[in-house]
């Protein structure tokens, strides 16, 4: 498969997943904010900006934090490349690059969502009922995921789709946890905020049902255990890393490449670490520190993937074969040669 | 019949050769030019083509390749509509004495003598007498000779080559269409029947069993006084009807050979001679609807 | 439907009606079937076909329009029918023509015999903007330059076919031929069952075989790719479509890399050598090392790999000199010169701005002529004399005198017309025909080709960018054929 095509599929999957996560995060926190009532905007939204890694970008545009500004920045601000709408735009651009490699259903799913969020309908809904807007995006993303699974070939492109989706998801889940756990433990912004915040975290990850099935109380350690290490929950770090690892192992390896097995090796190592970890060990390291190292390793896997299959695929040494054809054959000097008669074909 | 003919000849030389001069006779000959719907000759290396008419009014195309080359491909494609001269039956009723009064007799002289590959020696005359028995009708005599060759000679590819003289074929009693045509020419000529060599193609049909359809084919035409030329194919023992596409005629193979040429290069320079002939029927005209 | 009751041929050669109202024999079945439908039913089928095109994304991008709008190429449901005899004549003429053009290209890039023999003036060849003098002396695979040719044909008021233009660089439109046929199959399945129409669906296979023929010697299973400028190109749909029809990858310049005079594509499994490139990028953008330095679309080193014989390009480099509008005037002479035959399809009489006498005639008769800029395609840079204003004519006069080599002029042909469905009835509109010729091991012509229609009433311009549309083109097998007929 062409590296460019694989790369586009990978980024299409990542950006679609990013948009969905962001939409869910915004929806969950909006609902949390309603519950909290008169919470301090700055203290409430600052961790969320941190989660998405956009705080600096936000500060460059807006002088101070307000609920409305953060939402606008994260949803539709043209200057934010990682806003929901820009993520969908980027996903659609990548899909367009490989339009001919996608089934019509997948293309329609991406394109329709793009047309919705950039069109007047989407704008109206965003202003009037943000929750519906975010929900429509999650549904659109779900349709995309579903049609992709239901209609696409299970070829290399599929592996890149899986890697993009699950790398992004592992990254986002860990960031959400990081933001939530960074809220001061001792002095919550509001006496009732902590349980609500954990609740919002579960909702941001679409984990409330899964968690409730296995736990009767909202215990932070149990939440962390669930989000990090659940074997069944599709957004847990462990689940995501396993999917990435499996997909990487299924990719063909470029011959002679010095970095050929790098991504699969790195990811399998990471998976083994996560697979045998306990939540107690993680807490001992410190959640923030643990997540930092996890994200660094996820990023390294993404980079190694790019290097191996896209960038450094070129470094494959070219075998020096004999010249394909000798174009001009030196003629014998006319003085060496006789006048020959063209052999005639027998009529049969 | 509406036929499409594709004839490709490929020479490969062991070493580059130069100054190649070539003459080809590959264009179907039709009395009515409208019957030749399409004809195109393609030469590789690509060269400018010219044409002339030879002594027998054959259409001859020629081209030169001065520069060194290791391969020569000559490819002719034609669409031609053929007809049969036998639609009203066999042209019987011509007697030998009618040749004396035939206005065309001067023109026919070359087709009554020996030529490069055809001999009219006594042994040939003797065979022809045996074949003809005592028939007095010219066409029946020619048919008898054709029949005689068909039953007495065995069709054996690779036993002879393009330059095999008729005398060898007489002795060995085997060969291919070109050889049988030469034998028939000799036998007819000894009996005073003007006969000429025809180079062309044979449509064998999708399920055909006729010989000579895989390469270019050869047969004979005999002159019937006051009527003209009629084709007979000793290889298949058939009359040359609309399945036969005529390209060139002459005294024998030497006059009508599809490709003749020479080049400058070492002896034995040609390593491959490859010939491919395809004759397909294109469906007849008229639009029908169910 | 009484859709033809008011139909007027207006003195033009009409493809369907002879002497005003008699239906030509080969249209008989079609006209009967169409007449049996109600206008409403016909209109519904037309709408369904349009909707299908939009849904499939069968679109092109219009240049010179800031928004880069994507549009569908309007499609008229009533097919154009070409009887067998007529098609055989056209086919023979096209094969003859492409053979001569390839001989011409081989000659002007080698010994230039035709120039030395005074048949084509040296200036015409060497001043052509697509002549690549740096390419002289390079041997191309099998000496074939134009592998895919789209030749524009028109018929005059007597129904004679003329060649209007050869497109020997990257002719587009073949995908519409295939898509139009699909649309017809959906709209009139029974009609296509009953009429012995020659299929066009195998174009992808034939194109692939033509390309495979070019592979360097010794390569058994060549890797073939379609090289596109990218998704923003107006013809991207076609590039992707043809790649899919052939089952080969579609690549952009950045997917290819040259190493040791060989071309490779970057795949996830490493570099894969490419043997044949069906390029849909103009010469200028092909290789920034040789042509335009600023080209981001091309592949550095591609031309060197090509001249080294490790990769084949279709079409070859520099073929534009053969489809130059001034060179066009010399094609009949080329056919006589190289093939020693008379041209089967005539040219439209052409006056060259570069020839003094012709130039004088052009300037004096601007109101009667069609003047075309030599280096523009698609109906841009053109003056339609009879319908022009004085201002436009003065402007063109200046342009012709300032740069005579860049202009040619032709008399206004009274192009043939074909019924086109307008609202609830049929009206005559001018049409042309672009057949596609493949030159590989053998020369083959896709039966029919793209019939383009000037949808504006009275207009003679059929280009998609100028309000043109298209029709499916049916070439008939002559007799009932088991392929085309149900049992």
How large is the count of helical segments of chain B? 7
Beta content of chain C comes to 15-25%
Strand content of chain B: 35-45%
Structural domain count of chain B = 2
* Largest sheet: spatial strand order of chain C: 5-24-23-20-19
Question: What this model shows, in words?
Answer:
Chain A is built from 16 helices and one strand. Chain A is mainly α and 348 residues long. Chain A has one domain. The longest helix of chain A is centred in the first third of the chain and has 34 residues, at 3-36. The model of chain A is unreliable at 317-337 (pLDDT under 50). In chain B, α4 (138-152) crosses α6 and α5 (166-172) packs across α6. Helix content of chain B is 20%, strand content 38%. In chain C, the strands form seven sheets. In chain C, strands 5-24-23-20-19 form a five-stranded mixed beta sheet. Chain C has 15 helices and 24 strands. In chain C, β11 and β12 (270-273) form a beta hairpin. The chains are: A mainly alpha (348), B alpha+beta (290), C alpha+beta (487). Chains in contact: A-B, A-C, B-C. The interface between A and B is medium-sized, with 19 and 45 residues. β1 of chain A pairs antiparallel with β13 of chain B.
């Amino acid at each position: 498969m062409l590296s460019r095509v694989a790369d586009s599929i990978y980024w299409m999957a990542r950006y679609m997943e990013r948009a969905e996560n962001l939409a869910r995060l915004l929806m969950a926190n909006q609902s949390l904010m309603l519950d909290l009532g008169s919470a301090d905007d700055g203290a409430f939204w600052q961790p969320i900006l941190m989660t998405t890694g956009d705080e600096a970008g936000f500060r460059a545009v807006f002088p101070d934090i307000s609920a409305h500004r953060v939402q606008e920045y994260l949803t539709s601000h043209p200057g934010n490349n990682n806003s929901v709408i820009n993520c969908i735009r980027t996903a659609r651009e990548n899909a367009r690059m490989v339009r001919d490699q996608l089934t019509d259903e997948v293309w329609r799913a991406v394109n329709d969502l793009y047309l919705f969020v950039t069109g007047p309908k989407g704008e109206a809904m965003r202003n009037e009922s943000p929750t519906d807007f975010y929900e429509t995006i999650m549904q659109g993303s779900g349709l995309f995921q579903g049609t992709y699974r239901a209609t696409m070939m299970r070829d290399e492109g599929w592996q890149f789709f899986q890697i993009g989706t699950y790398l992004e998801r592992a990254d986002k889940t860990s960031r959400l946890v990081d933001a939530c756990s960074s809220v001061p433990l001792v002095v919550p912004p509001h006496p009732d905020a902590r349980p609500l915040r954990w609740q919002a975290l579960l909702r941001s990850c679409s984990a409330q049902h899964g968690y409730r099935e296995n736990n009767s109380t909202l215990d932070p350690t149990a939440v962390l255990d669930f989000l990090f290490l659940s074997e069944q929950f599709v957004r847990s770090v462990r689940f995501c890393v396993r999917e990435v690892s499996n997909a990487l192992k299924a990719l063909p390896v470029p011959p002679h490449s010095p970095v050929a097995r790098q991504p699969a090796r790195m990811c399998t190592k990471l998976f083994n670490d996560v697979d045998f970890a306990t939540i107690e060990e993680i807490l001992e390291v410190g959640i923030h520190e643990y997540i930092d190292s996890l994200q660094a390793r996820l990023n390294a896997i993404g980079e190694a993937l790019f290097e191996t299959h896209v960038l450094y695929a070129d470094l494959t040494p070219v075998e020096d074969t004999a010249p394909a054809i000798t174009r001009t054959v030196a003629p014998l000097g006319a003085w060496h040669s006789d006048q020959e008669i063209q052999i005639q074909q027998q009529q049969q | 019949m509406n036929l499409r003919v594709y004839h490709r000849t490929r020479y490969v030389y062991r070493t580059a050769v130069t100054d190649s001069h070539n003459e080809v006779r590959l264009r179907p000959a039709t009395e009515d030019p409208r019957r030749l719907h399409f004809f195109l000759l393609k030469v590789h290396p690509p060269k400018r083509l010219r044409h002339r008419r030879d002594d027998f009014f054959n259409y001859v195309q020629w081209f030169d390749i001065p520069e060194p080359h290791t391969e020569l491909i000559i490819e002719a494609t034609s669409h031609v509509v053929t007809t049969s001269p036998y639609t009203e039956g066999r042209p019987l009723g011509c007697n030998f004495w009618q040749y004396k009064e035939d206005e065309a007799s001067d023109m026919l002289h070359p087709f009554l003598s020996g030529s490069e590959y055809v001999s009219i020696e006594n042994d040939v005359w003797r065979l022809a007498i045996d074949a003809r028995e005592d028939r007095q009708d010219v066409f029946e005599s020619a048919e008898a000779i054709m029949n005689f060759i068909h039953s007495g000679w065995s069709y054996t590819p690779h036993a002879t080559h393009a330059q095999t003289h008729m005398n060898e074929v007489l002795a060995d009693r085997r060969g291919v269409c070109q050889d049988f045509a030469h034998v028939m020419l000799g036998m007819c000529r000894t009996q005073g029947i003007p006969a000429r060599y025809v180079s062309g193609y044979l449509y064998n049909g999708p399920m055909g069993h006729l010989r000579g359809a895989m390469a270019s084919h050869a047969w004979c035409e005999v002159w019937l006084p006051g009527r003209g030329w009629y084709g007979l194919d000793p290889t298949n023992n058939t009359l040359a009807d609309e399945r036969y596409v005529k390209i060139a005629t002459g005294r024998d193979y030497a006059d009508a050979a599809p490709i003749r040429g020479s080049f400058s290069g070492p002896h034995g320079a040609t390593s491959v001679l490859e010939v491919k002939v395809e004759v397909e029927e294109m469906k007849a005209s008229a639009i029908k609807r169910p | 439907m009484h859709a033809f009751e008011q139909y007027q041929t207006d003195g033009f050669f009409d493809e369907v009606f002879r002497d005003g109202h008699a239906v030509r024999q080969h249209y008989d079945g079609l006209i009967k079937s169409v007449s049996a439908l109600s206008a409403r039913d016909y209109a519904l089928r037309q709408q369904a076909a349009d909707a299908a095109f939009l849904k499939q994304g069968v679109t092109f991008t219009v240049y010179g329009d800031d928004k880069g709008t994507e549009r569908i190429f309007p499609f008229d449901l009533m097919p154009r029918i070409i009887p067998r005899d007529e098609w055989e004549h056209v086919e023979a003429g096209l094969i003859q023509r492409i053979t001569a053009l390839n001989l011409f290209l081989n000659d002007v890039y080698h010994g230039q015999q035709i120039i030395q023999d005074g048949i084509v003036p040296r200036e015409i060849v060497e001043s052509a903007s697509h002549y690549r003098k740096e390419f002289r002396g390079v041997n191309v695979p099998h000496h074939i330059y134009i592998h895919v040719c789209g030749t524009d044909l028109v018929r005059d008021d007597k129904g004679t076919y003329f060649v209007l233009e050869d497109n020997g660089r990257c002719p587009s439109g073949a995908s519409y031929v295939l898509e139009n046929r699909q649309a017809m199959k959906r709209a009139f399945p029974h009609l296509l069952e009953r009429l012995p129409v020659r299929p066009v669906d195998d174009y992808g296979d034939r194109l692939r075989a033509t390309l495979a023929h070019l592979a360097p010697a010794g390569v058994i299973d060549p890797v073939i790719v379609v090289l596109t400028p990218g998704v923003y190109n107006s013809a991207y749909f076609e590039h992707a479509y043809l790649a899919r029809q052939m089952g080969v990858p579609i690549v952009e310049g950045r997917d290819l890399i040259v190493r040791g005079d060989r071309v490779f594509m970057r795949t996830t499994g490493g570099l894969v050598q490419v043997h044949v490139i069906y390029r849909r990028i103009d010469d200028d953008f092909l290789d920034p090392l040789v042509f335009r330095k600023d080209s981001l679309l091309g592949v550095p080193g591609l031309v060197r790999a090509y001249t080294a014989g490790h990769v084949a390009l279709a079409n070859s480099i520099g073929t534009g000199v053969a489809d130059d509008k001034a060179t066009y005037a010399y094609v009949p002479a080329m056919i006589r010169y190289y093939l020693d035959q008379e041209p089967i399809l005539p040219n439209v009489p052409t006056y060259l701005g570069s020839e003094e006498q012709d130039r004088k005639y052009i300037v004096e008769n601007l109101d009667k002529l069609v003047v075309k800029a030599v280096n523009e395609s698609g109906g841009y840079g053109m003056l339609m004399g009879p319908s022009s204003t004085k201002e436009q004519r003065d402007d063109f006069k200046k342009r012709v005198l300032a740069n005579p080599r860049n202009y040619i002029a032709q008399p206004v042909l009274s192009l043939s017309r074909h019924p086109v469905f307008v609202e609830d009835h049929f009206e005559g509109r001018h049409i042309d025909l672009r057949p596609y010729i493949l030159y590989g091991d053998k020369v083959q012509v896709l039966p029919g080709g793209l019939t383009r229609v000037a949808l504006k009433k009275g207009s003679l311009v059929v280009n998609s960018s100028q309000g043109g549309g298209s029709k499916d083109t049916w070439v008939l097998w002559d007799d009932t054929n088991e392929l085309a007929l149900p049992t």
